[in-house]
Amino acid sequence: MKKLFQNEWVNIILVVIIIAMVLPQTRKPIAIVFNKLIASSPKLTDEEDRQKIESYNWTLEDRFGNDVNFSQYQDQVILINYWATWCPPCIAEMPSLQNVYQDYKDEVVFLFISGEELETSQGFMNAKGYNLPVYRMKTNYPDPLEGYKLPTSYLIDKNGAIVIKKEGAADWNSTNFRNTLDKLLKN
User: Fold this and answer.
1) Is residue 19 located within the same domain as residue 67?
2) CB neighbours of 150 closer than 8 A, spacing ≥ 6?
């Protein structure tokens, strides 16, 4: 009898979870929490497998409508993050990105690129209390910096090599990632 009671509770919990995942109002918050739970520190790309940026010829638009030439960031450590306000994994990793940005904003170039209107992406940042710099692409990205999957992030060293390419949510505020940034900044 006790075993039957336990199984009924398991069934009830499973039904509630399934219903919550089907309802649009609860699907996104649940997906965000799930992505936060599974996010881990991004992994370094093996040195022999690192791709280099083919060109720094890329124009972005900042939140004020100003053109920003990617070429001005050549020879700097750069973190590019492709994201969207409607993307649960993107939202899940934003707090960790905000923490890293707060500590490294004067040393690392941060480019948070969204295909949405700048008012939409900046409004999201304002509503969440983030001060991450948002951009839109005005010209196509240089190879190999594609961002078809959201989120996709790239950490680029001073020589233009992609040290990390991460698709999906990550814990950017990890000790491993911060050590990687520190090492890249010293080189």
Assistant:
1) no
2) 82, 83, 84, 87, 89, 90
Count up the domains in the chain and report the number.
2
This prediction has a pTM of: 0.84
Q: What is the pLDDT along the chain (187 residues), one digit of tens a residue?
A: 455 455 677 777 777 777 766 766 776 676 677 656 656 789 989 999 999 998 999 999 999 999 999 999 999 999 999 999 999 999 999 999 999 999 999 999 999 999 999 999 999 999 999 999 999 999 999 999 988 899 999 999 999 999 999 999 999 999 999 999 999 999 8
- Residue pair 158/77 in contact (Cβ under 8 Å)? The answer is yes
Give the H/E segment covering residue 111.
Answer: strand 109-114
